[in-house]
Design goal:
2 domains, 107 residues, mainly beta
């Protein structure tokens, strides 16, 4: 059984702990198995690559590293401030996420 994750691909989040604290970005990928997420422009790592057919020069490539989801907080769609996430049934009986700070549904 897979774990429930409050953060999904495409959400805008802010980092609340760690070296990248205060930075915000869009979630590119969620790694459910490890409870981690990759956020655009946050936790940049330098990867040293060897020259090959695709990259004849080789060199150092900057890319995003993963961050544990406990260090991320979703930004409220109305105010743009960090908020916790809740789940509730909508009018159609479907479970939806909502921002606890404003009560607004998260799409």
């Amino acid at each position: 059984m897979q774990k429930k994750m409050n953060i999904k691909k495409g959400d805008t989040v802010i980092v609340i702990a760690g070296n990248s604290k205060g930075q915000q970005g869009r979630v590119l990928e969620v790694l459910r198995k490890n409870d981690r997420a990759i956020v655009e422009g946050v936790n940049m790592l330098s990867k040293h690559t060897k020259a090959d057919k695709n990259a004849p020069q080789g060199g150092i490539i900057k890319r995003e590293g993963s961050i544990h989801v406990s260090n991320l907080m979703l930004l409220d769609p109305t105010s743009g401030k960090p908020t916790r996430i809740g789940r509730r049934l909508d009018a159609n009986g479907k479970l939806v996420r909502y921002a606890k700070k404003s009560g607004e549904e998260i799409k």
